[in-house]
Amino acid sequence: MSPHPLQALAPAMFDRLRPSGLSKGTSGAVLALILCLAPAHLRAEPQPPIDAPSGDAPARHSAAGNQVARERSRGDGAEIVLPALTVSGRGITGTDPVPSIVARVTAAGTKTDTPLITVPQAVSVIPRVQIDQQAARSVGDSVRYTPGVFADTRVGGVLESVFLRGFGGFAAGATNPQILDGLPLVKGGNWAAQVIDPAVLERVEVLRGPASVLYGQASPGGLIAMVSKRPTEQPFRAVTLTTGNRNRAEAAFDLGGPITEDGRWAYRLNGLGRWVDTQADFSREQRLVLAPALAWRPDEDTHLTLLGFYQNDPDNNFSGWLPAEGTLVPNPAGRIRRRFFPGEPGFDAYDRQQYMAGYAFEHRFDATWAVRQNLRYAHIDTRFEGVAINYFAPFGATSSLLERSASWSREAVDGVSLENQVQADFATGPIGHTLLLGLGYQGSRADVNASGFGPVPAIDFAAPVYGRPFARPPAVPRTHQDWSRVGLYAQDQMRLDNWVVTIGGRQDWSLLDTTTRSAARTSTQDDQAFTGRVGAVYLFDSGLAPYASYATSFEPTLGTGFSGAPFKPTHARQTEAGVKYQPPGLESFVAVSAFDITQDNVATADSAHPFYSVQTGAVRSRGIEFEARATLSDSLDLIGAYTYLDTTVRRDSNLALVGKRFVAVPDQLVSLWANYRFPGGPLAGLSLAGGIRAIGRSAGDPANSFSVPDATLFDAAIRYDLGAADPGLAGWQVSVNAANLFDRTYLASCFAAGGCFYGNGRTVIASLGYRW
């Protein structure tokens, strides 16, 4: 990495200041630190030179704003002013690229650019460097080495299935919200869910625990916040060709840089094409992605970034669930192969088109006041057709015949998200404040044309025969949904000596109108909730930062009870305490946290009225998380994570379920990743990496009648910079990644005796890239 101009300026500054005595003591040390550690987005503006002063009179200095003025007395008593050094530019933000695996600033945890160590809640940042090292092909892949997160629930990246602190869901039923550039992604009622390919992302952040105080309705387990790649100040161009097992073929490009000489206009353009089969017969993933961005920076205080996104998954198909008999436990009829496809090749399909357009605007009026506005329009169009095994079949089957059903869905969703923020940085006496006021709005309209379930001929997993005729399930009444959500919030981050206290509150209003078009009938669900968070961090000079916080969340529950009254939102509360450690001068970050989450108003079966539910349930999740990230030298990166989870059903109308664990949630997760770059010698340019992921046992069904056993998986990677061997090949790089290196066959999760998922087998990805 070439030195920053400020770094080159440091020796000259010391030579200039040494005669005056200003290079001694604290002031000189602070100046040296500024000069030597200046980020690349700062610039030095030295004023015209003057003659060096003479004599031995004492020196004094003063500071005003970002200008440092140095005054020096001449020997004759006259006073001169040394040239002012102006250091201008923006600070590190939560959208900036992270040059290593260790991030220092987050925007997800507070919606302001805040050091990770001062956020009173667990936040993990997965930078682009890690995404590339591990060749992540989905957001779920990118968070595999993150504590509190279980993303290896099922095969396929068409829909994300991620659990955070025990809360989440599978595919279309996933409840953990995903945020892109500060705004929530749009989701329909069935299969219309936005999925963002990590090829267009700069970083992925995981905020664990309740986040409603900032983002409105949300699962109590947390959320995933993604940041798009932004225009760059320096020219950047890269192309990559990728192949691998399962007939993988990929091509990608990433272009960026200034448009005008003054740098006021800059651009970024990402593109990707992917075709790959998944491990089950007849299943595949196809994707085309294009993400343009244009930035306008008329001055240092005003930034406008236009963001576009188009993703087409034109011809996809993914394998469904399988029964426990023949996968987890023996079946006299034999074992179900990992590549067995339980659907119908001529019927099953999943197609999705999604596009978005919006902007991020920021203007700072002065050292105190700043305003921001984010706006995005999104559209999703999906087609789902699927044949699946009847998962409610009883446990203990001994036949190779599997009963099946078919369903289909067509959905179109349009959504608008808007966020307005006012930020004030000021002080009241000795207390510093970062006050944030925000108003958020999200509106969406969804048209759903879907079917119920229809019978399909059974299939023999030992000798499958496909293509037998069956009737297409008839459509159920078509529905139209209008959903409006408004949130008004305030947050104050207060600093007094070594204390940082964060207090926030938010009021949300949610209105959902569902119209059944054939009956011209509309039902309305009107919810509102107040949520909050209070937390404190104490910063020791050593880099140690113990913290504690209390936060609440809410999540609307769709539907009505037997009386016809709409369900109330679920409410959750969390207590969290931990310690963060980021030693000064070292590229490392360590965090330990303990949490206890309770969620009330959970819907359970109505024992008095079959097929209805009542909100008498309560669940609890508590655990311990550990995360360590470090770049120990210019050669070695380490990432380690551990999770212990104790999930329990506290109340349920079915007393037999009280005290049971959540389904599909491992009791422990352990991971370790290491990447070593050879610094010189004949192996210069070579990087070797390896990882281990240990997944603990999980409950296979709500009654905990069986368990999914633990599994240990190994990953590996090798990367070589060809320019290190031959300068004529500068910019060329080859890499090979392997996930589940030893191709272990294992069950990733189950949700019922008839609903289990094999984990992904060995995946090999080989890439050739060129950057210039």
* Rg estimate, integer Å: 28 Å
Mean pLDDT: 88
Q: Return residue spans where pLDDT drops below 50 for at least 5 consecutive residues.
A: 1-89
Terminal CA distance reads: 15 Å
Shape, please?
A: globular
Overall strand count: 41
What is the top-level CATH class of the largest domain? Mainly Beta
CATH topology of the largest domain: Maltoporin, Chain A
CATH superfamily of the largest domain: TonB-dependent receptor, beta-barrel domain
Question: What is the total domain count?
Answer: 3
Strand content: over 45%
Structural class: mainly beta
Proportion of helical residues: under 10%
**What's the helix count?**
5
Question: Secondary structure elements and their pairing?
Answer:
Blueprint: H1 5-17, H2 25-37, E1 43-46, E2 59-64, E3 67-73, E4 79-88, E5 105-106, E6 114-115, E7 123-127, H3 128-133, H4 139-142, E8 149-150, E9 163-164, E10 167-168, E11 178-180, E12 183-184, E13 201-208, H5 212-215, E14 222-228, E15 236-244, E16 248-258, E17 265-277, E18 284-299, E19 302-316, E20 349-364, E21 369-389, E22 401-428, E23 431-450, E24 454-460, E25 479-496, E26 499-516, E27 521-538, E28 544-555, E29 570-581, E30 588-605, E31 613-631, E32 636-651, E33 668-677, E34 686-695, E35 698-699, E36 707-708, E37 711-721, E38 732-739, E39 747-752, E40 755-758, E41 763-771
Parallel strand pairs: 11-14
Antiparallel strand pairs: 1-4, 2-3, 3-4, 5-6, 7-13, 8-9, 9-10, 11-12, 13-14, 15-16, 15-41, 16-17, 17-18, 18-19, 19-20, 20-21, 21-22, 22-23, 22-24, 23-25, 25-26, 26-27, 27-28, 28-29, 29-30, 30-31, 31-32, 32-33, 33-34, 34-37, 35-36, 37-38, 38-41, 39-40
